[in-house]
């Protein structure tokens, strides 16, 4: 059973604990929606200075809104559009310090200032993306990127 934990170590150690919690929380579960729902809740509880945490799932050649924590969001995003669509098209993590400087940024929440999007690739096919927004510019650093990519790796292990 998952229990809330107070994080007291370094940023890296805190992320490692978060990833272990995700692994334990999703162990034995096969339903993707259930896994992504708990993953978004876990991240929302863990991360500070974020205003949206969730997933978009690749369906019929576009991203469709999946489980999330935050204000209502855009429902569909085309490949190559905005930060999420760019992440899918390029199959790379997009770490954007100032979303207002990103060409074609899709503003679902006017409070968002920075964003990180990690593609979810399962068996060499795009499954979707993890999308996290912050009301703070330059909120996400290289450490966040490394550990959020590892977080997605745990998701893929349980969903793949």
UniProtKB/TrEMBL annotation:
Domain of life: Bacteria
Residue ranges of every copy of the GAF domain listed in the record: 42-151
Name of a matching Pfam family: GAF_2
Similarity comment: family membership: Belongs to the free Met sulfoxide reductase family.
The protein, known as: GAF domain-containing protein
Organism: Oceanobacillus longus
